[in-house]
Amino acid sequence: MGVAGRNRPGAAWAVLLLLLLLPPLLLLAGAVPPGRGRAAGPQEDVDECAQGLDDCHADALCQNTPTSYKCSCKPGYQGEGRQCEDIDECGNELNGGCVHDCLNIPGNYRCTCFDGFMLAHDGHNCLDVDECLENNGGCQHTCVNVMGSYECCCKEGFFLSDNQHTCIHRSEEGLSCMNKDHGCSHICKEAPRGSVACECRPGFELAKNQRDCILTCNHGNGGCQHSCDDTADGPECSCHPQYKMHTDGRSCLEREDTVLEVTESNTTSVVDGDKRVKRRLLMETCAVNNGGCDRTCKDTSTGVHCSCPVGFTLQLDGKTCKDIDECQTRNGGCDHFCKNIVGSFDCGCKKGFKLLTDEKSCQDVDECSLDRTCDHSCINHPGTFACACNRGYTLYGFTHCGDTNECSINNGGCQQVCVNTVGSYECQCHPGYKLHWNKKDCVEVKGLLPTSVSPRVSLHCGKSGGGDGCFLRCHSGIHLSSGLQGAYSVTCGSSSPLRNKQQKSNDSAFGDVTTIRTSVTFKLNEGKCSLKNAELFPEGLRPALPEKHSSVKESFRYVNLTCSSGKQVPGAPGRPSTPKEMFITVEFELETNQKEVTASCDLSCIVKRTEKRLRKAIRTLRKAVHREQFHLQLSGMNLDVAKKPPRTSERQAESCGVGQGHAENQCVSCRAGTYYDGARERCILCPNGTFQNEEGQMTCEPCPRPGNSGALKTPEAWNMSECGGLCQPGEYSADGFAPCQLCALGTFQPEAGRTSCFPCGGGLATKHQGATSFQDCETRVQCSPGHFYNTTTHRCIRCPVGTYQPEFGKNNCVSCPGNTTTDFDGSTNITQCKNRRCGGELGDFTGYIESPNYPGNYPANTECTWTINPPPKRRILIVVPEIFLPIEDDCGDYLVMRKTSSSNSVTTYETCQTYERPIAFTSRSKKLWIQFKSNEGNSARGFQVPYVTYDEDYQELIEDIVRDGRLYASENHQEILKDKKLIKALFDVLAHPQNYFKYTAQESREMFPRSFIRLLRSKVSRFLRPYK
């Protein structure tokens, strides 16, 4: 620390003498502290310091004396004790001993270093950081460390891309930036008429020859260890006064003799003073060898006082400072990891957690709050998350859901015909048979088939509130399923048995019955799917639509209503890009029969009349949808189909949707064995005699009953087999109820309530009666995973491409879900099923370039091509958070971004390696052609690369930011480029600057580390300075 009055030596000695002589003088004179009287005779001493009776300054120390007390300022402060002020240690000519920046703090100070340097163990000097030691500095090929910075270099045949980290293949054709002899020292830009223009990285200036780049002090401190000054000949280095210059002209060495001579004025100022005091002052003064202090020295009345900067502790000798390992005490206050550094420490977090702005606390990253995490349901866990799929779908690629082909496993358990549908399947029977109550077996029909089924759905529309309003009422056969972003589907009634056989026609005839089908989609520009209780009228009054005033009154056999938000993006199946858009699709199915035929109108005439009524109903329904007057009535509940987003002032805490109840302040679907009671708005156990094997439903299905009703099981039956009285797996009977028989030898049955057993096939026997699976059949060889047993040849066959088998001894292979397939035959796991869909034309403002099947491994032998064509006067910014490709010498798999498909066109980015350190860069061309290719034998996790297009007026600012090495030097900065939530916020503002006002200053501070805000603030200020 500095000493008060050091620039006035005579005054300093006078003050010290006065402080030494003052206590004896006070005693001799019988002095008392101001404001206190003294009584005659001896008196017991009062400790004013302990009782708080002193008037010492808050930054002073109180010392009790026999008759009084005295105040002295704490180390780092100056004054007479009753008034103390902080000493600015950074204000002296030595800069507090700091070679870079000195930060004054109350009672102390701290030295900090420029980017590219780290604090030495003495807490004052700054040493170069070798960035190449960690992850090769982020360089794709070679990293070369230099003082205060580092440089990336490329192998022969490559040149450094604009992002200064990755390398691009050289081309030798034509005069362009792809030519290896373009002549630019740093960045090459194509100019009109086939010429090229050169630019320099931040911290460099373009030379007069318009090709070379001259280093300045703004990059890596100009290569100087201590001080840098820009001159006409380039940076000029100098050293702190306590150091001398190394012969390399850049590094600084500590001087061998730093003892300062005592000035003549110091020795003559106390000629008339006490010799004892003079001797002690001459021996102990901060003016001589810094008082022997390792760091800061302060002259006091009792001699010198040594102190240390923050992050160091004074040793027992009272002179030496030692770095404090803060991590040894309560882990430095860090939640997870603590890393000690000289003079300070850094906290870090485990994977799946984020360091908060206090730089100590770690907060779980809620991946489920981010877009594009899971296709269906997302469950957040500390440090991770898990995706789940709706019933009828299978999880693949960790986050995606594809339709399960139930028919691929033992024919779906169907006795005759199995038909797979999206999200489900159904069993069907051959002519002359009808489906058993168990929905899988077929029983012979005696007599004629019924000609029609009573309608289960009705649509009523009428005038309501000055416009059309419609109610769709479901009476039975209700089924709910939910999807991504609030999407849902409601099915009412039962579809025609021939529905799946008549895909190409809207009408189908069977005997005297004609089935009419129609589908309509309504698009709303803004809104949100919301299947929740409708507040139609005050006091809970239900709307009245008298039948005589109904403009539409129609009955249907089957209706499927689907609500989804957003449109589909090519290359991103099942993921919406425009959440404000909403689509409501309704499929209707009704029947006409011979009973409606009259003498003047045959069956064909009846069909035409019905179709005409349907068209009128759809027109009315369309008006009701756009007026938000379309409602569902399920199990007596009136429900909204969708809602427009409320105004900010109207937003309230939203209630749970239909089929969901509250659990631990979250909305959770009613579990199997329960149903949603709309009146009580909660989940209720299925009553006796009913069951429900799906989540989030509004009714329970009645248990099947035998001719002689047996005992039924207790409530909460979640499966038909719990209804009681059913034949168990390995058994069968004529109606599926007891009394039951064991499956004969050579047959098996894995399900309950069945009327027959499946044969093993191929003449195979079972080990015992009552077998429950094919694995009980005595095969000649046990097949391993990835194979199935062929009962004709009695050999194990590899599962064909597009299927897999994870178990031993199976007679089938499981079809891959949805549109996925496997790379090869003989697959053993669902993870080997991969979606190959990719490529396409991407959006105008923001989007993602994603390897197929991401975050699962991408398929082998695949090729994807994307194009980005921004609107006029917009440029492209790309961030590669990380990319995982197999490590190979011959670049088998690669990602390239060019202006066009031509290999000679301007290339922005090219890589064939794993690259875990993030990088950001701007496109070298106004549009981009992007290709990813994998060879026939490779597979890896791949990549998810976000991009944004921005106004070209910001080109200079954006390039200044992404080319600055400081953006990648800090681990905190690297985490920003990997944080999907932060990148989305940054891109949101870049794409639409007016959205900046959506984020408050507090939100910005909570999102970004202070160092990142400082980096951006300096660049934005410099960018805007010409306009001030």
UniProtKB/TrEMBL annotation:
Residues 838-950 form the CUB domain. One of its GO terms (molecular function) is calcium ion binding. This is Signal peptide, CUB and EGF-like domain-containing protein 2. Residues 45-85, 364-402, 403-443 form the EGF-like domain. GO terms for cellular component: cell surface; extracellular region. Its main location: other. Disulfide bonds join C368-C378. It holds the Pfam family cEGF. It comes from Homo sapiens. Gene3D superfamilies: Laminin, Spermadhesin, CUB domain, Tumor Necrosis Factor Receptor, subunit A, domain 2. Coiled coil: none annotated. It is found in: Cell surface; Secreted. SUPFAM superfamilies: EGF/Laminin, Growth factor receptor domain, Spermadhesin, CUB domain. InterPro entries: cEGF, CUB_dom, EGF, EGF-like_Ca-bd_dom, EGF-type_Asp/Asn_hydroxyl_site, EGF_Ca-bd_CS, Growth_fac_rcpt_cys_sf, NELL2-like_EGF. Keywords: Calcium, Developmental protein, Disulfide bond, EGF-like domain, Glycoprotein, Lipid-binding, Repeat, Secreted, Signal. SMART domains: CUB, EGF, EGF_CA, Ephrin_rec_like. Residues 1-31 form the signal peptide. Transmembrane segments: none annotated. The gene is SCUBE2.
